[in-house]
Amino acid sequence: MEQILREATTELGLKCPACASRVGSVPAAPQKAIICPNCDYPMTWADDCWDACTDKTYPRDFARQWVLWEAGKLGDPTRVYGNDPSAYFRELLAHTCLSEKNLDSMKILEVGYGHGRLLNQLQQHCPTAYGIDLSKPLKSANLRPGSAIFGNLLNIPFMFGQFDLVICRGVIHCTPDPEKSFACLAEQVAPRGMLYVGGLYEPGKGNLILRKIFPRVYDYPEPIQLLMASIFGFGRSVVECLRTRRFNLRSIRDFYAHYKLDIFDIISPHWTAVLTENEVIMWFESRGFLARKVGYGDYVGIRK
After folding, report:
1. Does residue 30 come out as left (phi exceeding 0), alpha (psi in the -120 to 50 range) or beta?
2. DSSP readout, 269-299?
3. Is residue 34 part of a domain?
4. Higher pLDDT, 6 or 184
5. What's residue 256's pLDDT?
């Protein structure tokens, strides 16, 4: 992986999310607004993040889950899908064959940082780790001020080809055009940089049947969706306890924290695509990456 590591500079070029014109570099400290000289679109500073969301009507139902999770309505908020939040940082290092020391000299972008725990841990090792999401960062994430962007991955306000590592987990299959979303991620990767796409749904994911049993379930009122997540999440937890022969309170709690959140993930987004290994690898290769599958729904590609 040494080939993707290079001397880091602190400057990152910005582009207008509305017209794609260059608007300078990421400020060293937050300021009132970054104004596009071409179309006058303002990227404003609010609530510890940059507001670069050009389309406020774009469905943000999938981003809503993390607000509910932080409030304790989707299982134990100290765990993510039943796991210690640090597990996703360890998994990232294992899948990418990077070390904590490697991260220090890299420019990193996480697209769809969600609960923010992975980005927070990246920032502990990397001074140039940024994130963009369809919602403003959770207070509990404790992200570095100025590092989070409220915006859409289809209009990422960074100039192309600057990041040594771009991370996107559990996002593109919940967009109307996953291949187009993937292309927007790929544009951000620097030469010899790495793209890590994870958490994609694959054929055979059983809980997806709920979207067939309950048509347009994504339009159900939120209290009904939460009730469904509780009922079906508890049911799946019992099944997993029986399957694994783990009947202690901690196992039940962890399974429930996983499946309640997982089921809400499945029933709440407007779009949910199922992607095969062949098509994801083809997306990588068609955009100049050497790619491999590293886990269920997880892929790593290095730009040639």
Report:
1. beta
2. -S------HHHHHHHHHHTTEEEEEEETTEE
3. yes
4. 184
5. 94
